[in-house]
Amino acid sequence: MKPLALAVFAATAVLAGCAAPRGPATADAAAAAPGAIVPFSALKSDDVGPWTSWRIHPTKPTTAFRPVSLDGSRVLEAVADRSVSGLKQMVDVDPVQRPIIEWRWRIDQPIAGADVADRYADDAPVRVVLAFEGDTSTLPMKDQMFIERAKLLTGQDLPYATLMYVWCNKNAAEAVVPNAYFSRVRKIVVQSGEGGSKEWLTYRRDFAADYERAFGQKPGRLIAIGVMSDSDNTKQLSRSWYGDIRLLEK
Questions:
Q1: Is there a contact between 124 and 226 (Cβ–Cβ < 8 Å)?
Q2: Helix, strand, or coil here: 42?
Q3: What pTM value is reported for the model?
Q4: What is the pLDDT of residues 144-191, one digit of tens each?
Q5: Phi/psi class of residue 17: alpha, beta or left (left: φ > 0; alpha: ψ in -120 to 50)?
Q6: Segment (H or E) for 79
Q7: Can you tell me the distance from the alpha carbon of 106 to that of 77, in angstroms, rounded to the nearest whole number?
Q8: Among 8, 12, 44, 115, which residue is least crowded by beta carbons within 10 Å?
Q9: Do residues 163 and 214 make contact, with C-beta atoms less than 8 angstroms apart?
């Protein structure tokens, strides 16, 4: 695959297709309140329900996601074996009304050699990903051209901007890390190093404030939430778990 195509497919880790029509994937999701996230604790079988798969690269293995019972709770297990993919759920949320995101996760251990600031080692055992809408015509021409190329190669629209919360080996907590391929992606490190491995860690973030810090502007509507676990660059085996994700008023 040519370098440009590789870059475009790598950047589709930003929830490609989020500009598609919004709506629930199942009847259960339809019963939820507008913008509500169907919790992993509500998944009773191996079916991930309204959480839909999003593939990052057309030739790489996909991470295995499945609901499991662990430590007395129903959670989502992610096993990345030299693989990369995620799950996403469409939402429609005004960040002014509900700017807070809460979630918890657990990892067995950090991925050896991973560094989210290095395009050749950009792996993370856990990521929570938020996609936002906006007017792409206001972006620099370089970004607009990248979006057009991505659509030509993948048939999907990239969101206006994407914010990722990640666990990183190398970068300090609260570091804002740009994506190597696309300037409309920013990663915020919320956990660094080995501390906290094999424990459930809970986070509460003002994602609207984090977005403004990362991009220098206020966010548009939140249009998708995702999780992603990847080890394709470092060729490692990684096991992790995600608890429920909630969007709250301030």
A1: no
A2: helix
A3: 0.89
A4: 998 888 888 777 788 999 999 999 999 999 999 999 888 899 999 999
A5: left
A6: strand 73-81
A7: 9
A8: 44
A9: yes
